[in-house]
Design brief:
mainly alpha
Length: about 140
């Protein structure tokens, strides 16, 4: 396992503090964008009008900057999440990707990082429990 893929020391429940932090960020990333989405729905009608949402997300240069920044960053991170999940043999990627689209990228990305930390810890435990083949 490379240095950047080493799990951090475990905390409550055997899960690392960083995994707990990622989980907390996932919760915030699910709640806070959806509070804004609910405000949008209340102000613009009973349904979520995606076209109107996108138009409003690009209504001025500041909004365009944030929208483009999110689109490019989310695309790059999504590509990495797919590759990393395959490399580590992670489960649940489909749910993470669906949550990025249906809940918020701010929910899905930290959720992926939480699951990745748990998988790294699992792999570290498996490597210390496995018998040495050279012995």
């Amino acid at each position: 396992m490379s240095d950047d893929a080493q799990p951090t020391s475990s905390g409550p429940g055997g899960i690392s503090w960083i995994a707990w932090l990622y989980l907390l960020l996932a919760v915030a990333g699910g709640v806070l964008p959806w509070l804004a989405n609910l405000d949008f729905i209340r102000s613009e009608g009973a349904a979520f009008d995606l076209g109107l949402f996108i138009r409003q997300a690009n209504v001025n240069p500041a909004a365009q900057s944030l929208s483009r920044d999110l689109a490019i960053g989310a695309t790059a991170v999504t590509i990495w999440m797919v590759r990393e999940s395959r490399r580590l043999g992670m489960r649940g990627l489909v749910w993470v990707l669906l949550s990025c689209v249906t809940i918020a990228f701010a929910f899905g990305a930290p959720l992926f990082l939480h699951l990745r930390e748990r998988r790294l810890l699992e792999l570290a435990r498996l490597s210390t429990e496995a018998p040495d083949p050279a012995a």
